[in-house]
Each structure stands twice: as structure tokens, then as C-alpha cells.
Structures
1.
Amino acid sequence: MNRSLAFLSVTKSFGKTLALDHFSVEVAEGELVSLLGPSGCGKSTALRVAAGFENPDSGDVMVGESSVLGSPANERGMGLVFQNYSLFPHLNVRENLEFGLRVRRSSAAVRRARVTELLELVRLSGLDDRLPHQLSGGQQQRVALARALAVEPRVLLLDEPLSALDATVRVEVRDEIRRIQRGSGIATLFVTHDQDEALAISDRVCVMRSGRVEQVGTPRAVYRYPATPFVARFVGRVNDLAVVVRGVGIVALRGSTSGFPVPQSGPSSGDARLLLRPEDVRVVGLSDDALARGRVEAVHFGGATTSVDVLLTPSNQTVRSTDATRNVRCEVGEEVGVVFDTERALLTREP
């Protein structure tokens, strides 16, 4: 698949602050790639560099096989949707969608046909005469998305487009964005700090930290097989346990003498951290082959899933188990056993 957008070792500083540090990632034709990371990681700076609002100190930005660094923002073939939508408040929906086409001096017939097509795509047919303030937040976001698509850009840039919406509407609009993106087939760069958004909407996720790429992969790969401790801790919930490495592939919980195997590579001796997803921890009876035991501290019923917090003894560490496939029937204060599925665990020396 051909690439539509590529960052090639892009570096950008603001004074003494390094915002992007040899940042490289590609977006293929028809692909949606999320830039995910905490505030200050450089994700919005990367989008602004691509859009032409910031010039990098070094590196290159390619659209197709051509560099766009020497091109102004309006000649880069990119559509941009901001956090606050930036709709023209005095123009109705149709006029907002026509704006870019008018700038390009498209004929009235072309404008009319394109706007009709876009209104159908974003499911807003019949609302073309409404002003922005007469629309819901979700509808405004879809108008902003349609306006960005009106001039048929090569690449779509979305800068935290759901952050201004309440939780329920966010999920609905997120799914709409994915449907519209697939329908248009446009390469899309989606900036977000929300893990659930990134995992739900993306073909691939680029996890960023301090201006650098920590991991790029499918949502499943990033969540299930994190490449670094930062990715494991930032993307989803993780049990972060203090362990002692007894030998290659064998660890014991801190304060315990019973070891158990860990297939992942890592330190071969000494103190370490074992990172496990809650779904890789199972609560069992004391008579079962438990790797550890402890006392139930809390039970969290979440509808489809139930989570159980267990205070392990004698290590005095709390571990969470989340089991979506069966009912977890245990009471607070009950003594239980715990089993770890360490196949996807990450063993690290980092604190």
C-alpha cells in the first residue's frame, strides 16, 4: 500500500524544549493512524508541522513521494479539523461546506453536487440551512469533518476532535468519524490523549513520549504486546508488581520464596518489575494451583466485566483481576488464590 503521509526523522524545538526528537511515522492510503500520548509528548506539534503551521528544525514531511516543507499550508493537500470545530458562525451548513470550493472557484453546479454528497456521507441531509448554533455538538463536529473533506484533500488531520464533547456523544461521533473515514478512503492522522479513542478508531497507533516514538502497531499489538514499560503503563490498566528475578525466566513476588516462570526476556537477576494486564490475572480458590494468595479488598461490578482487587500476602501488593467471560463470585475480606498468565507479561528493571 502506498504511503500518503510520512514524517522522516523530524526534529522540532521551542527554545530549550525539544518537542519532536527524530520523529518518524508513515500513514498509508486509506489508513487511520492515531498519535497517542500524554500532554507535552509532541503529538500536536507533529500535526502542526504536517499542516504547515510550524517548520521543523530538521527532517522532512512527505505527501506521497514529494516533500511539502517548502509549500504553504493551503497547498499541501491536507484537510484539518480542530478541537473547537472553527465553523463560521454566520454561515449555514451548506455555506460552511462550500467555503473551500468557493475559494477554489468551483462552479455552482460542482459546489451543489459536492455538498449534497457530503451531507449524505455525514448523515446531515436536510440540515443544510441551519446555522452552527442550531446544531448539537456532534452535528457541528460532523459539519467540520465534511468541510475538511469538501476539497478532496490527500490527507486528513484531526486534532483531538472529540475533546469538547460529553462522554456519550464522544463515542457516537468517534464511530461516525471512523465510518466516514472508511467511506472516503482518505489517509488520516488522528491526535488524541485518550487511550480508548485511539484503540477503538485506529488501524495503527503511534504511542509517543517526549517527542519520540515508543511503539507503532495495531491497537491489539500495542495493548497486548507493549514494546516498552511506558507503553504498558500508559495504554490501558496494568498491574505493576515488584518481583525478584531468581534466574533466567524465573521470578518471585517481593517477600515470597515461591518462584514462577516468565517467558518474556528481561533482567536475569535482582529486583525488577513485572507488568501484567488485569485480564491476565485470575482469581481462584485456595485449593487450586495458585501462584499467590491474598485477601479480596474490593469487587468492582462494571456490567460486562467484574474486577477484583486482591491484597497479596506476604508481598503486601494489590493486584487487579478483570474477567469478562465468567462471574467472579467472591466477597470482600475473602481469602483467595491468584494465578498469573505471564505469556504477555513484561519484565523490566525500570522503576
2.
Amino acid sequence: MPVLTRLIPAPVVVDIRAGALSDLAGVLADQRISGSGKLAIAISGGSGRALRERLSDSLPGASWFEVGGGTLDDAVKLAEAMKSGRYDAVVGLGGGKIIDCAKFAAARVGLPLVAVATNLSHDGLCSPVATLDNDAGRGSYGVPNPIAVVIDLDIIREAPVRFVRSGIGDALSNISAVADWELAHRVNGEDIDGLAAAMARQAGEAVLRHPGALGDDAFLQVLAEGLVLTGISMSVAGDSRPASGACHEINHAFDLLFPKRAASHGEQCGLGAAFAMHLRGACQESVRMAEALRRHGLPVTAEEMGFSAEEFVQVVGFAPRTRPGRYTILEHLDLSPDGIRDAYAEYTGAVEA
């Protein structure tokens, strides 16, 4: 008998709206995620404390755990602290580091994870990956998808605007990442999941084409939905391929070569994506992406990000070494330093015209 459908791992609840945080307890009870209200809530020591004061009355059965940072040790300590509590679920309430620690800890103790994002800095909030610093640098750990995602647009607007900008760059980079995946399929026969590719690409295109500004609810809604869809696309594909190509190789190279000077994840991915689109000959798409980045206040050249052209040449040359086995436009062209230098000069001429 032919397979007519497939199961797609996705959250039971996706609640993205202004005021969503105030209804957290009710949403979890209604969806039978936590009828008893016994929750283990991971927060940061800074803004997390203010959110605890705001929510503690509506979550009387919750236990609150302050997470020191975004390391593997922090996540293991969180799991150890929670494991004897007989909780219904773990709630990661905060930014990417808090949610990733909570993801790992929830997986370790066998509990579902509720991701409550307080900023939109990247697409990891709904992905099946926890990115944590370890003794060797930074590792990616496979974890189950969150069972619920809650994003309060009022809270998002209170966060520093640089977080929204970072999320924009990360979302737009999907367009380049999917193009790299399709390239690997054409050249090397790499399997491509059409549904995952469509989800990731449309998430990026929606952000690219939306006319709204950083503080507009309509734009923030589209950005938040795009980041959630991107995370689900990675679950559908079984890895990060729909959202990670040359753009993320360039991002990782910035982090490794210039750890004390690196910009935000989304700034580096956005620049990497616009440059990668230029490399693949999609010059109009590259310029359109750069225009969107610039409209939202993101850098579109290395110099705008505080790096020289020669440093960018070094970054692009090193980038393929960050993801061995991944085939992107960088591996396909295999440019020499002079080739990268010439391509970057052409790119900057196009986006600054």
C-alpha cells in the first residue's frame, strides 16, 4: 500500500500575539500540557527575574530555575536540578541561550519543552537543535521540538532592537540556504525535502517582501512566524539544511576567526546570504536582499560590520572548513583569495550603487 501521508513534528501550540504571555497558564492547561500547573521554568538572572515577578501569581505551582549562561554545563546542571520535581513540562522563558539550555535539559529528563521567546534573534526557538558552548567551542545537540511556542509581541518590542535585526538576517538567509541545498541536489544528487525547502524559503520571502518596520506588530508577526516555520522545516528535513548554507558557514567563520569582534548571528548570516546570492549569479536577488537588510538597519558590507575587505576575504576562504561535507556555492566555486577579492568588489559595487 502506498504511503499517502507523513507525520510532521510540530508544536501542539503556536501562540504569537500581543499579550500572549499573560495567558500562558491557561494555554498550557487547555492543551493538557500542564493541567496541574507543575512547571519547571528556566529563566535568566536579569530580565528573567522581572518576568518571574510578573508571572508568579498566575503560575503558583511553578518552580523557577536561574540559568547561568548558554553552556553545556549550565544545561546539565539545570537537568540535575529539575529531575526530582515531578513536573509536567519544562518552560524556557528568555532568549536563545535560555531556550537552548531548557531544550537540552528537558530532553535529558524526558519532559516536553515549552519555548517562550522574549526576543526574535534567530530561528533556534522552534528547532530540534540546542546550541551550547562546551570545552571544545560550541556544539549542536539534537533534541525534540518544543511542544509549544509562545511569543508575546509586547515583550518582543521591549527587547533591544538589535535582537529583531538579528532575526531578520537569519530569516532572510533561508533564501540562500535553500538555493545551496538545491545546488547540492543538482551537482551531487543530495536528497532534498521539497516541503522543508518550501517552508524555509517562504519564511524568508515573507520577511523579505513585508513593507513593515521593526516596531510594527504586523511585521513582527511575520518575522516570528517565519522563524517558527524555519525551525519546523529543520525537523521535517532532519537536519539544519533548509536554513544553513554558505551564509552560516560565513557566520561560523566570523565567530571562529574573530571571536571578540564578531557581530550578531543574524548580521553575519544576512551579509553572508547576500554575498552568496551574488556569487551564484543571482545578482538582482542579492541586491534586493541587501536593500531589505539595509532598510531594517543591518550591515550589507564587511566594512559596515567593522571588518576590512581583506578580513572578509579571509573569512570567506575559511568558511567551508566550518562545515565539512556540506556543499554550498562556496565549495562549488572554490575561489582563490584573488577570486574572493574580485567577487567582493563586484558585490559591494552592486549593493552600494
3.
Amino acid sequence: MQPASPTIPDNEASRLAAIRDHAILDTPPDGTFDRITRMASALFQVPISIVSIVDHDRIWFKSRHGLEVEQIGRDPGLCASAILEDEIWLIENARTDPRALANPLVAGEFGLQFYAGAPLTMKGGFNFGTLCIIDHEPRTLTPAEREVLNDLAAIVVDEMELRYAARQVAADAQFRVELAERRSHQVTQLNDDVVQCLAVAKLALELDEPSKALPSIDRALIASKQLLSSMLDESQPLRRTRPSV
């Protein structure tokens, strides 16, 4: 019997877009997340703990304790099923659980028998992946242990959201610097253009030819209006709501 492919979440396209926006995939190992997986293994006395991100065709491990591989295919990964739930997805004994009987991670050499995955639910309600614990022996979770696993998953989410907000703040600061530089150049250019136009207008008036002064004055006014319009357009992104840190 072949393992059934996990159901795809209804919001899959938006979920994957949010993962890309957070720029988490394929980032280097990180001490903060590694401490969380080490802590999870110590608290639950399990050999393997993982912070996983479920991509469109793979499950990538942001942090892994007790496991060498950096990613596996989305099918047959159990995390792909776990993200369909908003609560801990639990398999106490994989050799008797119909959801996992045919899974090669269970039937093969890996010998997975216990899996508990708490979803990493980000802002917007997207389940990016899981904080999961794995054992080679059947076991269960007490209500207190469930609460601890959920708390650790919430710490992972908070850390990811904090880093996303920091990147947004940095991008906003860079945008403001670049905008200020462009405006400085535009104002300098406008000043030169206006001075030139007014010099032509002054000369025309001195020659008692006021009709020749008007086009120069008009050009100066048009240039000023265009610059003001450009500044207002470029300021629109600054009015967007930024994520709070």
C-alpha cells in the first residue's frame, strides 16, 4: 500500500507567498532556533527535534537536533499533514496508526514510531511548518507536555516574526535614505532650472519685452509642479502600515 499524499491547504498559494516574503528558506543555521530544538529534545527526552518549513515540494529544516539531513520531500513528510491542523498533530504509535502505517519513514530504516508537531502559525493564519519532536519508541504527551510544545512553537513564531519586522524596518530606512537622496538631487536640479528661467524672464523684462518673459515663468511653475507631484507619489509607500516589532 502506498502512502496517501497529504491534502494541500486551501490557502496554499498565499501560504507559500508568505513564506517567500519572510525569506526563511535556505537560510544558514541559527543559534536561536538550534537552542529551541536542543531544549525540546531535552525536555521531552526524544532523540530528534525539528523546526520545519513546508515548501511546495519539500520540507526544509530551519533547525534540526539529532538529524543529519537538511530536508526531505513533502510527501511522505508528516509535517505536511501537521500544517493542516491548528493544534498539535500527534502520532503516538506509528506502527498501529492508520495515518502513518504506509509511511516510509515508519516502515523503512528510519523507524519513526512517535511524532508530535505543533504548527508554526504566523500572522495571517498561515501554518509555515512545525516544531516537531520524534522518537523511535511509542509514547504519548500529557496535557502539560502539549502546553510546553505549543509554547516552544510560539517562541519560534515570535522569533521569525521579529526578524521579519526587523527586515521591514531596515528596508523602510533604506527607502527613506534613497528617497532623500533623490529629492536632494531633484531640488538642486529644479533650483538650477528655475534660476535659468527667471534669468531669461528678467532679461526679457529689461528689454521691455514682457511677452517673452511669460513662457520662462510658465516653465518654472510647471517644473515646480512636476517635482511636487513626483515627491507626493514617492511618499506613498511611507504611508503604508509597517509591521510592529
